[in-house]
Amino acid sequence: MSFKIRLMREIEEDFQMERVEVFSGTISPGFVPLWEEAGVYESLYDSDGKKAREISRSLAYGLDRIVSDEGMATLIPPGTGGGVKEAVGFLESLLRACIVHPDARVEAS
Questions:
Q1: What domain of life does the native source organism fall in (predicted)?
Q2: Rg of the chain over all Cα atoms, to the nearest angstrom
Q3: 21-78, pLDDT tens digit by residue?
């Protein structure tokens, strides 16, 4: 079963508040050991209901750790998706969305 995270914003349209999805991403659960070592596990799996700005700092830190430490790739079990490239792409996209939409609410499942 894969992990899905979404960022939802409330916008006013025609004098009514409407929820809009501004980011949606899915990734294999095989990345959990990498997320734990990089320090982003809680920001991903325990972030439901938080604002994007609350998780962006740890995502940036974890992304930097993964990119700068080649040894982190060994934490990904063989046969898990696209390996470190997929992990980095997922975190980069999520971090970018958190920066662009800091008031968005996180929905993790």
A1: Bacteria
A2: 14
A3: 999 999 998 999 999 999 999 999 999 999 999 999 999 999 999 999 999 999 998 8
| 52-68 and 83-100 helices, crossing angle to 10° | 150
How far is residue 68's CA from residue 64's CA, in Å, rounded to a whole number? 6
DSSP state letters, the chain: --EEEEEEEEEEETTEEEEEEEEEEEE-GGGHHHHHHHT-HHHHHT-TT-BHHHHHHHHHHHHHHHHH-GGGGGGSPTTSTTHHHHHHHHHHHHHHHHHH-TTPEEEE-
Give the model's pLDDT for residue 17.
Answer: 85
pTM score, two decimals? 0.92
